TrEMBL record:
UniProt-recorded name of the protein: Probable N-succinyldiaminopimelate aminotransferase DapC
InterPro entries referenced in this protein's UniProt entry, alphabetically: Aminotransferase_I/II_large (IPR004839), Kynurenine-oxoglutarate_AT (IPR051326), PyrdxlP-dep_Trfase (IPR015424), PyrdxlP-dep_Trfase_major (IPR015421), PyrdxlP-dep_Trfase_small (IPR015422)
Complex formation: Homodimer.
Keyword Manganese found: no
One Gene Ontology CC term in the entry: cytoplasm
Native source species: Streptomyces scabichelini
Catalytic activity: N-succinyl-(2S,6S)-2,6-diaminopimelate + 2-oxoglutarate = (S)-2-succinylamino-6-oxoheptanedioate + L-glutamate
Coiled coil ranges: none
Family designation: Belongs to the class-III pyridoxal-phosphate-dependent aminotransferase family.
Listed pathway(s): Amino-acid biosynthesis; L-lysine biosynthesis via DAP pathway; LL-2,6-diaminopimelate from (S)-tetrahydrodipicolinate (succinylase route): step 2/3
Subcellular location field: Cytoplasm
Length: 405
């Protein structure tokens, strides 16, 4: 060890130095040591459909997928992904050349960026952004250019209520001659924003005009609430040929531990992403791929019930947070509610989240970790509601301690 540490050079390389530790590990440890209800990390505390679990057991017992599955994913799953995109969105993809199965959406994001970026390329991402985006852009040697979603009091039906919106002029101004790719996420984690057709149309027009590639993370495609509608970017004019669309069985079927994700895109893009993917995991999740193929063919009733259940959870936690004194942004999709802590007399989300377990026995995540412009995210705090109703009820009761009379 002495030899390794005698040099001044840090072990973690320069590209990754700023990503040393994640807030999730710190907050989850705090949840355990204080006996708090953990609304920090976004994973459901109830498993997905029993018949899908049983399909995985059957595959494992029958010896399907216990050895390396085919590199692009098993044909049954690629066919099911293509059929799902066709059934839901009238998007047609060839299962053999336009679909790629990945180790969760996480690998799909990593492989897409590693494959499509040259060092120095700029990537525009919506800030606050999912934490792996920044790390993967860095690993690819790219430069991230955040465009900040800002609080907005909406009046039209699609943007009604207080939500975070994209400033289309700011997006347009962020494009330079070095911009290679737009990294979009809708429904958006952590704000719960679902981009409207008008917003997506403006993004599409910009991508076509400036000849940009688009990677769109649509893992929450089935979790859109009220009258919000998920519109895949690939359905807009001129977009199918330049867009990599990413989905996840973890998020759509509540099996986040299975790590089954996918990419749909035209053949040259899938082929490029596959080139990177084959040297990351090569393949993953063999037996689970068979189960997810069955899950994707579930009737619409499954998807409706899943959404209704999650919407009821959103309603319960939103009401509880409002009653405790937070300003609550309207969540139109995802697992998450973003709040503003300023009505509680607080301004620093980091300090607030570090103190919250002691004060109220609940763990949340400061949105600032999802920002380059940390000050823009300072007063915002994210709560996950993909938990049992009784857990959310208990959290809401605990949070009443914060209320100022
Ligand atoms: C959870 C999540 C992912 C990762 O999905 P996995 O399939 O678990 O790898 C990617 N993007 C967003 C926005 C997420 O919230």
């Amino acid at each position: 060890m002495a030899a390794m540490t005698s040099t001044a050079r840090p072990l973690l390389n320069r590209r990754l130095a700023e990503f040393g530790t994640t807030i999730f590990a710190e907050m989850s440890a705090l949840a355990v040591s204080t006996g708090s209800i953990n609304l920090g990390q976004g994973f459901p505390d109830t498993d997905g459909p029993e018949e899908v679990r049983e399909a995985a057991v059957r595959a494992l017992r029958d010896g399907r997928g216990n050895q390396y599955p085919p590199g692009p994913g098993i044909p049954e799953l690629r066919t099911a992904i293509a059929a799902h995109q066709e059934r839901r969105y009238a998007l047609t993809f060839d299962p053999d050349t336009e679909v790629l199965v990945t180790a969760g959406a996480t690998e799909a994001i990593a492989a897409s960026l590693l494959a499509l970026l040259e060092p120095g390329d700029e990537v525009i991402a919506l800030e606050p952004y999912y934490d792996s985006y920044a790390a993967c852009i860095a690993m690819a040697g790219g430069t991230r250019v955040p465009v900040t979603l800002r609080p907005h009091e909406g009046r039209g039906s699609a943007t009604a209520g207080h939500s975070f919106r994209l400033d289309l002029d700011e997006l347009r101004d962020a494009v330079t001659d070095r911009t290679r790719l737009l990294l979009i996420n809708t429904p958006h984690n952590p704000t719960g924003t679902v981009l409207t057709r008008a917003e997506l149309t403006a993004i599409a027009e910009l991508a076509v005009e400036r000849d940009l590639l688009v990677v769109t993370d649509e893992v929450y495609e089935h979790l859109v609430f009220d009258e919000a509608e998920h519109i895949p970017l690939a359905t807009l004019p001129g977009m199918r040929e330049r867009t990599v669309t990413i989905g996840s069985a973890g998020k759509s079927f509540s099996f986040t531990g299975w790590k089954v994700g996918w990419v749909t895109a035209p053949p040259p893009l899938v082929s490029a992403v596959r080139s990177a993917k084959q040297f990351l995991t090569y393949v993953a999740s063999g037996p689970f791929q068979y189960a997810v193929a069955e899950a994707l063919a579930l009737p619409d009733a499954y998807f409706t019930a899943f959404r209704d259940d999650m919407q009821a959870k959103r309603d319960l936690l939103s009401a509880g947070l409002a009653e405790a004194g937070f300003e609550v942004f309207r969540t139109a999709g995802t697992y998450f509610i973003t709040t503003d802590i300023r009505p509680l007399g607080e301004t620093d989300g980091f300090a607030f989240c570090r103190a919250l377990p002691e004060r109220a026995g609940v763990v949340a995540i400061p949105n600032a970790v999802f920002y380059d412009h940390r000050e823009a995210g300072a007063p915002f705090v994210r709560f996950a509601f993909c938990k049992r109703m009784e857990t959310l009820q208990a959290a809401a009761e605990r949070l009443l301690k914060l209320r100022q009379y």
